[in-house]
């Protein structure tokens, strides 16, 4: 009887081993298929016909007030850098409404004039956006933490604040803890911006700016830095008279 049991367990072990091997082969095949599909989608997305190409033009003036503050970065190395490629093209990939950047610390989306999120398409770590000529859009950031960040944004290789050639070293917008930031256009002054509006590349701001180039149209860039923020001494939230202190000299 012991021999029979031994033979049974040996056969059972062989069957389990064979099943496990087949499962691994199927899993490997599925992974390969997914990888091949992503590679094909990425090639298709990066192939943009001449009539599909877009840029971002200098749109209508929008009231937008800003003030300058003096804060320093904790590091000159960005926490995150994100690029979105856009064109009037039916992109392929997984549809997402927002991008998680800086390890989820910030949510980034592209919205229309009504604040509705435009669909983005992700293939691997690349993101794509389909635009239409004449459509305006805005860059929207949400801070999910209690920290303060700096958002340096570019459109078509142009800095959105001063219109210069985009650089990671340029100053950006401050995104306060648990707050939101919407960049509506190229900044014209402390009180107004020119809205981001999809256009033909030849009509884009980059193509008609001394600091831009038509070669860089079709790209939206975001770089994130963490900022050093001076600690503010906590103030008492009690709005009534404080209790008496028998030893006032000893009070810290």
Report on the architecture of this protein.
The protein has 252 residues and is α+β, with helices and mostly antiparallel strands. The chain has two domains: 1-47; 51-228, no CATH class. Helix content is 18%, strand content 34%. The chain contains one helix and 16 strands. Strands 2, 3, 4, 7, 8, 10, 11, 12 and 16 form a nine-stranded mixed β-sheet that branches. Strands 1, 5, 6, 9, 13, 14 and 15 form a seven-stranded antiparallel β-sheet that branches. The chain is flat, with a radius of gyration of 27 Å.
Task: Summarize the helix and strand pattern as letters.
Answer: HEEEEEEEEEEEEEEEE
Overall SS class: alpha+beta
Provide the helix percentage: 10-25%
Could you list the spans in which at least 5 consecutive residues all have pLDDT below 50? 1-5
Radius of gyration: 27 Å
Tell me, briefly, the overall form: flat
Largest sheet: 9 strands, mixed
What's the number of helices?
A: 1
Count of the domains: 2
Mean of the pLDDT scores?
87
Number of strands: 16
The share of residues in extended strands comes to: 25-35%
Q: Give the N-to-C terminal Cα separation.
A: 85 Å
Summarize this, please?
The chain has 252 residues and is an alpha+beta fold. The chain is built from one helix and 16 strands.
Describe the structure using short key phrases.
252 residues; alpha+beta; 2 domains; flat; disordered N terminus; 7-stranded antiparallel beta sheet
């Amino acid at each position: 009887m012991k021999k029979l049991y031994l033979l049974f367990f040996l056969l059972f072990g062989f069957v389990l081993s064979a099943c496990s091997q087949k499962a691994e082969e199927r899993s490997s095949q599925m992974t390969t298929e997914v990888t091949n599909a992503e590679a094909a989608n990425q090639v298709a997305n990066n192939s943009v016909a001449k009539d599909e190409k877009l840029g971002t033009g200098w749109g209508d003036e929008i009231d937008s007030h800003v003030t300058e503050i003096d804060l320093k970065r904790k590091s000159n190395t960005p926490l995150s850098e994100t690029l979105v490629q856009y064109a009037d093209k039916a992109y392929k990939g997984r549809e997402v409404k927002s991008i998680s950047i800086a390890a989820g610390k910030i949510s980034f989306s592209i919205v229309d004039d009504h604040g509705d999120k435009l669909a983005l398409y992700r293939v691997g770590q690349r993101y794509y956006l389909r635009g239409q000529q004449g459509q305006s859009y805005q860059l929207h950031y949400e801070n999910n933490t209690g920290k303060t960040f700096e958002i340096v944004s570019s459109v078509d290789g142009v800095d959105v604040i001063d219109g210069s050639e985009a650089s990671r070293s340029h100053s950006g917008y401050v995104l306060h803890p648990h707050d939101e930031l919407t960049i509506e256009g190229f900044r014209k002054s402390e009180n107004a911006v020119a809205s981001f509006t999809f256009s033909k590349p030849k009509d884009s701001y980059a193509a008609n700016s001394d600091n831009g180039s038509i070669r860089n149209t079709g790209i939206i860039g975001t770089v994130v830095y963490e900022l050093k923020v001076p600690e503010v001494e906590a103030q008492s939230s009690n709005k009534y008279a404080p209790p008496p202190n028998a030893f006032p000299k000893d009070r810290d």
